[in-house]
């Protein structure tokens, strides 16, 4: 479908003539690899696996909540489900999938041959992977010597003092802390790598203001990891000390403070949500221009807005704590700082709009998911603004409205952009196109499922339904809405299964992609698909933000405008 | 294809707005009188918040319609035409425009400032409201998974069902709640009366409510506090001044000593019940569970989980986990005879 | 698929292209992350000042560790000299300075160990005693664990240096290590001010 770039060359023939290899040899190669692409793919595969696991947990919760007074799962099982679902989705789906794409794409996009610290990269991945396994080991191995299996049931933000030994005996909470701690260490390692790679490994000519926006956003995200994930690590260390050495950080009986944990958690937790969403923005920044056939509108403003979001997001954490009884002054401050985020975020939305404006929009599946993202992120942001008006939050906080708000971002924006990224970069990663027809089915089913589930979820919140309840009475007026919500989850499940099927099928049967199937402009499309271990036969030199555009349009290169 | 997508999205959103609106304004289904919709306020804080909510909601809806509309327009207007499929022509490349970008920076700033000022007023008018002379003090203590209410000036201790006087706008008699927790975090949320406030161990929070009409207001614990968080329900009875006075009088009485229930009382006192429950005027002075002095006068048991009928009481005492699995009251393994006796005794504790 | 085809972006050889060293950037990132961890512990320390329900209080049991602090801070200078020496190719000088650094750091650690011994066995203050014990041991302990890691690395460098494996080609690596050590020292200044000056 795409035009080949006018300047092409025969690049690499080594791969074609490899003998088939034994399973063990392949396994050995993957386990010991330090290649950023392989590690990226492992991150992605691992995240996809956990997406299905955590999605399955969501399905179980939705079955339980579909009708009032349901006894499909026990109360404790339900509490474990939402804890595991939330923790898995955030730490073992969101983070690894984004770092997976980052690992894969950042070196390719800046014309580098690998990450700055390849071995640290492998280490970080395996540490995170171990964290995820540990979390799920709690279901199997459970309390170790003390009893049967026990998954954590303290909620994904594990408020003190519920996590103290008194209220949470056994080891379930220990699994949670250790898993999160490990994933945090892995994340810091990968973030360090991405920053060092971006700063130190760019190819000649790739000045900071010529980097693809994706790389910029990963830089900002990674910087945020240092200042956001570290506090979480610190708080987890404190919690471990409390649980194992009997210290009193969060022990309210000994004068400790439950609110301190909330502060520490949300100092991490809020920036974390932007850590998750910035890479999604990053994908949009690459995909939307290519399928509108236009350069991104307002590159400097996009960079500034991202950096701005990064900084502002460090000062808004207590909007998760409007109901803990802060004074009017603090409530006012955090209302303002939270609302201010609408400004840089708005800039992004409007710049995407302007990028589309006057373009020649090609609706591939990747673009369809991006369009869904734009609408859904808009709505999610606006419900966020409602929550940020603290009195409104006194009503809505911890209700299903909040659950709807954040799934609108996490699923409607982030997961949609992740899907888009798959359709866009899968050809680069495997050399085969994903099936567009199956992709459209996937898109429509997921879209319908998403809206059935999460549109209708706002209303029970307004009708007074708190989150994290395993059941509710029939006379509260929440029944129909929960029914609809639950039914949507099944559409999402079918769509996700289709997607997984598509990936497997296309890997073997999909049409050959070629180096540059989308007629795109950034460096990763200048090498073969999948790229060889060394990425580029010759290290490229760039003179503008869109090196391949310059190559394809010598009559009107970007260099003139920068 | 995609225009349909966005069209579907928009109409879905509008449908939702419409459907949501009609749902929200009505009292929820099935003829229940006391719903929990935040859009059916029945007290000053809830009213003030409702006003702000409507403002924020309309501004956000307006932004959605404008930006969403623009987006929709662009997506349809600038789609690639089928005739254009194979042309190599690229659209004009535009790299940015300071003027336009400035405008979409400034306009949101103005909106944000507006929203912020409106919000600040509500924050202060609720949190710093002047306290009228006539007001009632209640101490609320959250427990895993029930509510303790103490009226320090009236010498009353009760559980799970909060009685307060209605507040007449002319001579307001709001109730001030001083809140803390005995174990984990909880949150007090009765949507029609006010926003929620958390109950946190080792910390004291306050809030106030002033129902304008007599009646029952429902709510439930809104901070995850453990296994039975879901059934930590809230019931606030707003009584007319006369009813409230009568209720107070009744609650001040020590527990009734009905000779016919003497056997049940003996069973109660010879079992561990007394180490967790208080029955005023008897040897039962436990503090871990709800005060049972007037348990017979309550409409529900186990924090609103089931109606207070002799049968339910009996089932509950026999196996507390029957209605609320994971509850902190252990089964006492009484034989049938003792169970009947204890139930009879509890029923007399009017 | 024998002929893989891709665009080749011409390499412009004569462009002058120099980027920062990744070792130093990586260490800067690590320091940023570690600093955030320390900030949280410091905040917890300050937040719980005077909130202990039982004794002992900081004022009763803490004494200023002036001597050991001087040792630790001066080790920042010695490690700097070690790097300079290596840069200038003076390997034996480098070994000497490294040895001095390890010694000074060791004195500091020994001082901390002694202080803890005294606190635990004479004053009866452990991590479980009260909030002061909790925050004190965790903050000072966190710092001490960083000193241990740093000392281990420095000792390793010293061994290499003595064996003659450390040459001026490794200057940058030693510099990265010295950055870490400076950071550990800087943190001590904060910990000292918070725990022994402000908190006492
Ligand atoms: C990636 C995820 C993500 C993102 C991007 C956001 C974005 C935002 N969030 Fe959300 N949020 C979560 C994930 C996310 N959130 C999660 C997971 C929780 C719950 C955690 C838990 O409790 O478990 C949560 C909870 C949460 C709360 C706490 C609710 C509660 O528990 O009581 C609040 C309150 O202020 C809030 C606000 C916001 C705001 C204001 C934004 C803003 O960034 C949105 C900005 C965007 C826009 C506003 C739209 C575009 C702008 C324009 C078109 C310009 C014009 C607009 C205006 C002038 C208004 N969020
Ligand atoms: C990235 C983050 C992310 C994602 C993608 C999702 C996706 C989904 N979430 Fe989740 N959610 C959270 C993050 C996320 N969630 C967080 C942080 C919480 C808070 C936790 C807490 O309170 O502590 C939460 C809480 C939460 C709740 C509230 C629980 C409660 O408060 O009681 C609910 C309830 O409906 C829910 C539902 C869903 C659904 C239906 C999806 C769907 O979109 C899922 C779609 C995916 C699938 C459906 C997988 C498809 C594949 C299969 C199912 C395979 C089937 C296999 C076989 C048949 C063998 N989520
Ligand atoms: Cu009490 Cu939830
Ligand atoms: Cu937030």
UniProtKB/TrEMBL annotation, chain A:
Signal peptide: none annotated. GO terms for cellular component: plasma membrane. It is an enzyme of class 7 (translocase). Belongs to the heme-copper respiratory oxidase family. This is Cytochrome c oxidase subunit 1. GO terms for biological process: electron transport coupled proton transport; oxidative phosphorylation; respiratory electron transport chain. Cytochrome c oxidase is the component of the respiratory chain that catalyzes the reduction of oxygen to water. Subunits 1-3 form the functional core of the enzyme complex. CO I is the catalytic subunit of the enzyme. Electrons originating in cytochrome c are transferred via the copper A center of subunit 2 and heme A of subunit 1 to the bimetallic center formed by heme A3 and copper B. PANTHER family: CYTOCHROME C OXIDASE SUBUNIT 1 (PTHR10422:SF18). The chain crosses the membrane at residues 43-67, 87-108, 120-139, 175-201, 213-241, 261-284, 296-318, 330-353, 365-386, 406-426, 438-459, 479-501. The lineage of its organism: Bacteria, Pseudomonadati, Acidobacteriota, Terriglobia, Terriglobales. NCBIfam families: CtaD_CoxA (TIGR02891). It is found in: Cell membrane. It catalyses: 4 Fe(II)-[cytochrome c] + O2 + 8 H(+)(in) = 4 Fe(III)-[cytochrome c] + 2 H2O + 4 H(+)(out). Residues 30-543 form the Cytochrome oxidase subunit I profile domain. Its EC number is 7.1.1.9. One of its GO terms (molecular function) is heme binding. It comes from Granulicella sibirica. It is a multi-pass membrane protein. Keywords: Cell membrane, Copper, Electron transport, Heme, Iron, Membrane, Metal-binding, Respiratory chain, Translocase, Transmembrane, Transmembrane helix, Transport. InterPro entries: Cyt_c_oxase-like_su1_dom, Cyt_c_oxase-like_su1_sf, Cyt_C_Oxase_1, Cyt_c_Oxase_su1_BS, Cyt_c_oxidase_su1_bac. It comes from the Bacteria. Its main location: membrane. Pathway: Energy metabolism; oxidative phosphorylation.
Automatic annotation (TrEMBL), chain B:
Residues 133-250 form the Cytochrome oxidase subunit II copper A binding domain. It is an enzyme of class 7 (translocase). The chain crosses the membrane at residues 49-76, 102-124. One of its GO terms (cellular component) is plasma membrane. Its EC number is 7.1.1.9. Signal peptide: none annotated. InterPro entries: CcO_II, CcO_II-like_C, Cupredoxin, CuRO_CcO_Caa3_II, Cyt_c-like_dom, Cyt_c-like_dom_sf, Cyt_c_oxidase_su2, Cyt_c_oxidase_su2_TM_dom. Its cofactor is Cu cation. It is a multi-pass membrane protein. GO terms for biological process: ATP synthesis coupled electron transport. Residues 30-130 form the Cytochrome oxidase subunit II transmembrane region profile domain. It holds the Pfam family Cytochrom_C. It catalyses: 4 Fe(II)-[cytochrome c] + O2 + 8 H(+)(in) = 4 Fe(III)-[cytochrome c] + 2 H2O + 4 H(+)(out). Belongs to the cytochrome c oxidase subunit 2 family. This is Cytochrome c oxidase subunit 2. It comes from Granulicella sibirica. The lineage of its organism: Bacteria, Pseudomonadati, Acidobacteriota, Terriglobia, Terriglobales.
From TrEMBL, chain C:
Residues 1-200 form the Heme-copper oxidase subunit III family profile domain. The keyword Chaperone does not apply. InterPro entries: Cyt_c/ubiquinol_Oxase_su3, Cyt_c_oxidase-like_su3, Cyt_c_oxidase_su3-like_sf, Cyt_c_oxidase_su3_a-hlx. One of its GO terms (cellular component) is plasma membrane. One of its GO terms (biological process) is aerobic electron transport chain. The chain crosses the membrane at residues 24-49, 61-83, 95-113, 134-159, 179-199. GO terms for molecular function: cytochrome-c oxidase activity. Pfam families: COX3 (PF00510). Keywords: Cell membrane, Membrane, Transmembrane, Transmembrane helix. CDD domains: Heme_Cu_Oxidase_III_like. It is a multi-pass membrane protein. The keyword Mitochondrion does not apply. It is found in: Cell membrane. Belongs to the cytochrome c oxidase subunit 3 family. This is Cytochrome c oxidase polypeptide III. It comes from Granulicella sibirica.
């Amino acid at each position: 479908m795409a035009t080949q770039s006018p300047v092409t060359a025969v690049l690499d023939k080594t791969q074609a003539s490899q003998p088939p290899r034994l399973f063990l040899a392949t396994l050995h190669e993957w386990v010991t690899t330090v290649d950023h692409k392989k590690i990226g793919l492992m991150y992605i595969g691992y995240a996809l696996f956990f997406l299905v696991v955590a999605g399955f947990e969501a399905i179980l919760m939705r079955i339980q909540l579909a009708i009032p007074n349901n006894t499909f799962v026990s109360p404790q099982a339900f509490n474990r489900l939402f804890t595991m679902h939330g923790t898995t989705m955030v730490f073992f789906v969101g983070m690894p999938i984004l770092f997976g794409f980052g690992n894969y794409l950042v070196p390719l996009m800046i014309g580098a041959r690998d990450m700055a610290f390849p071995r640290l990269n492998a280490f970080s991945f395996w540490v995170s992977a171990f964290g995820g396994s540990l979390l799920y080991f709690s279901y199997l191995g459970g309390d170790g010597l003390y009893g049967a299996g026990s998954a954590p049931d303290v909620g994904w933000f594990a408020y003190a003092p519920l996590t103290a030994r008194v209220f949470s005996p056994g080891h379930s909470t220990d699994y949670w802390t250790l898993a999160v701690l490990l994933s945090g260490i892995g994340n810091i390692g990968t973030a360090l790598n991405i920053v060092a790679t971006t700063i130190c490994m760019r190819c000649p000519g790739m000045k900071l203001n010529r980097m693809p926006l994706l790389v910029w956003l990963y830089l900002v995200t990674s910087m945020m990891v240092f200042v956001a994930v570290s506090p979480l690590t610190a708080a987890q260390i404190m919690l471990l000390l409390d649980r194992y050495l009997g210290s009193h950080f969060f022990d309210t009986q000994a004068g400790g403070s439950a609110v301190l944990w909330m502060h520490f958690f949300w100092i991490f937790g809020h920036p974390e949500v932007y850590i998750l969403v910035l890479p999604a923005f990053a994908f949009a920044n690459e995909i939307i221009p290519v399928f509108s056939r236009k350069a991104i509108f307002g590159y400097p403003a996009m960079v500034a807005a991202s950096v701005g979001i990064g900084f502002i997001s460090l000062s808004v954490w207590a909007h998760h704590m409007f109901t803990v009884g802060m004074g009017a002054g603090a409530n006012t401050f955090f209302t303002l700082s939270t609302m201010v985020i609408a400004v840089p975020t708005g800039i992004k939305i409007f710049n995407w709009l302007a990028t589309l404006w006057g373009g020649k929009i090609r609706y591939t599946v990747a673009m369809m998911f991006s369009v869904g993202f734009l609408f859904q992120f808009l709505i999610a942001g606006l419900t966020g603004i409602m929550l940020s008006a603290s009195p409104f939050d006194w009503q809505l906080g911890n209700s299903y409205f909040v659950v709807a708000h954040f799934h609108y971002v996490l699923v409607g924006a982030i997961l949609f952009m992740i899907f888009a990224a798959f359709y866009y970069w899968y050809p680069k990663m495997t050399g085969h196109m994903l099936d567009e027809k199956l992709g459209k089915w996937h898109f429509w089913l997921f879209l319908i499922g998403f809206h059935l589930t999460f549109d209708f979820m706002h209303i029970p919140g307004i009708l007074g339904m708190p989150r994290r309840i395993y059941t509710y009475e029939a006379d509260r007026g929440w029944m129909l809405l929960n029914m609809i919500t639950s039914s949507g989850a099944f559409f999402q499940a079918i769509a996700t299964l289709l997607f997984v099927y598509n990936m497997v099928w296309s890997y073997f049967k999909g049409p050959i992609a070629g180096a540059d199937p989308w007629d795109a402009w950034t460096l990763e499309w200048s090498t073969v698909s999948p790229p060889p271990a060394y990425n580029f036969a010759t290290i490229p030199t760039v003179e503008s933000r869109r090196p391949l555009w310059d190559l394809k349009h010598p009559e009107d290169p970007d260099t003139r405008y920068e | 294809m995609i225009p349909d997508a966005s069209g579907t999205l928009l109409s879905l959103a509008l449908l939702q707005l419409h459907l949501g609106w009609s749902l929200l304004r009505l009292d929820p289904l099935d003829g229940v009188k006391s719903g929990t919709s935040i859009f059916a306020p029945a007290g000053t804080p809830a009213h003030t918040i409702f006003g702000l909510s409507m403002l924020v909601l309309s501004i956000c809806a307006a932004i959605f319609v404008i930006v969403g509309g623009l987006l929709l327009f662009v997506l349809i207007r600038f789609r690639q035409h089928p005739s254009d499929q194979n042309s190599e022509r690229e659209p004009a490349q535009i790299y940015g425009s300071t003027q336009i970008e400035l405008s979409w920076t400034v306009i949101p700033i103005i909106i944000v400032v507006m929203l912020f000022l409106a919000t600040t007023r509500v924050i202060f008018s609720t949190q710093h409201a002047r306290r009228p002379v006539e007001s009632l003090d209640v101490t609320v203590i959250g427990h895993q998974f029930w509510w303790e209410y103490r009226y320090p000036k009236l010498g009353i201790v009760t559980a799970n069902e909060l009685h307060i006087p209605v507040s007449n706008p002319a001579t307001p008699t709001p109730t001030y709640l001083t809140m803390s927790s005995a174990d984990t975090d909880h949150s007090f949320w009765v949507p029609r009366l006010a926003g929620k406030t958390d109950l946190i161990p080792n910390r004291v929070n306050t809030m106030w409510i002033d129902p304008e009409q007599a009646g029952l207001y429902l709510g439930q614990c809104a901070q995850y506090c453990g296994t039975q968080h879901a059934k930590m329900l809230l019931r606030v009875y707003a009584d007319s001044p006369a009813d409230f006075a009568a209720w107070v009088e009744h609650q001040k009485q020590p527990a009734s000593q009905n000779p016919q229930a003497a056997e049940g009382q003996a069973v109660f006192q010879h079992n561990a019940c007394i180490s967790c429950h208080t029955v005023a005027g008897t040897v039962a002075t436990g503090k871990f569970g709800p005060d049972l002095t007037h348990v017979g006068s309550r409409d529900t048991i186990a924090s609103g989980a089931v109606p207070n009928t002799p049968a339910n009481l009996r089932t509950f005492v026999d196996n507390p986990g029957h209605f609320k699995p994971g509850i902190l009251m252990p089964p006492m393994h009484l034989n049938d005879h003792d169970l009947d006796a204890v139930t009879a005794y509890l029923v007399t504790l009017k | 698929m024998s002929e893989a085809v891709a665009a080749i972006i011409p390499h412009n050889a004569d462009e002058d292209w120099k980027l920062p060293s990744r070792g130093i950037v990586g260490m800067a990132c690590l320091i940023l992350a570690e600093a955030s961890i320390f900030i949280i512990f410091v905040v917890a320390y300050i937040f719980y000042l005077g909130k202990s329900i039982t004794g002992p209080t900081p004022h009763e049991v803490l004494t200023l560790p002036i001597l050991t602090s001087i040792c630790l801070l001066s080790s920042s200078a010695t490690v700097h000299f070690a790097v300079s020496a290596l840069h200038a190719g003076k390997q034996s000088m480098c070994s000497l300075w490294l040895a001095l650094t390890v010694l000074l750091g060791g004195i500091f650690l020994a001082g901390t160990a002694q202080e803890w011994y005294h606190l635990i066995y004479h004053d009866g203050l452990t991590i479980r005693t009260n909030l002061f014990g909790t925050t004190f041991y965790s903050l000072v302990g966190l710092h001490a664990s960083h000193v241990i890691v740093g000392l281990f690395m420095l000792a390793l460098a010293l061994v290499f240096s003595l064996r003659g494996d450390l040459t001026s080609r490794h200057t940058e690596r030693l510099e990265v290590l010295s950055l870490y050590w400076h950071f550990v020292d800087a943190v001590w200044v904060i910990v000292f001010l918070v725990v022994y000056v402000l908190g006492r």
